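User: I want to check something. If I give you two sequences, will you return the structure for each one separately, not as a complex?

Assistant: Yes, each is folded on its own. Here is the first sequence with its structure:
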Amino acid sequence: MTNIPVERTTLSDETLRDQMAAQLAVFAEQLETDLAAALDRIDLNAALLLGDLCEFLHLSEAQRREVLGPQASAFVDLLDADRITLPEVLLAVQQLDLA
């Protein structure tokens, strides 16, 4: 993994951090359930993962585009246009790898 410099922000409210941690844990559980695999065994496209996370957090379309940037947004939009979900894409990839 590449070390990309990131401007870090902190959540100042401990309750907000606890709520975010709880929501991320639910997201992780749903991901494992949808893909029938442990997190350490799942190979993910970062754009799809972040897009799904934005949806899970009920971010607006504009917020999702801000998170993803133009190129990743276009990629996710292309898949969304075909109504392909992240679990479907990853399961298809897994099946191809098994063939």
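And separately, the second sequence with its own structure:
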Amino acid sequence: MKNHVRIVRLLTILVSVGAIACMPKMLSGMQPDSPFKTFVWLFPLYIAGSGVCAWLCAEGRIEISYILLVLAILSTVLLGYAVTLP
């Protein structure tokens, strides 16, 4: 049973980290003089770091792992919204 739980956790983390695929769309939808350009370029590092931290703390502190994943998903949505602002 424990192996099944690990696989589910890994799939959840991979789906959350899959938000890195949104970066090209964010870059193409951004205004040329947008102040969010730095955030968009650093975005994959943040998401990858959140995924690694979520995996490392998944064994002992599952709540922290899920909080990190929820924050990563929310930041993806909010940054995607912010780059489309005029």
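Because they were folded independently, the notes below concern the second chain alone. The radius of gyration is 15 Å. The mean pLDDT is 84.
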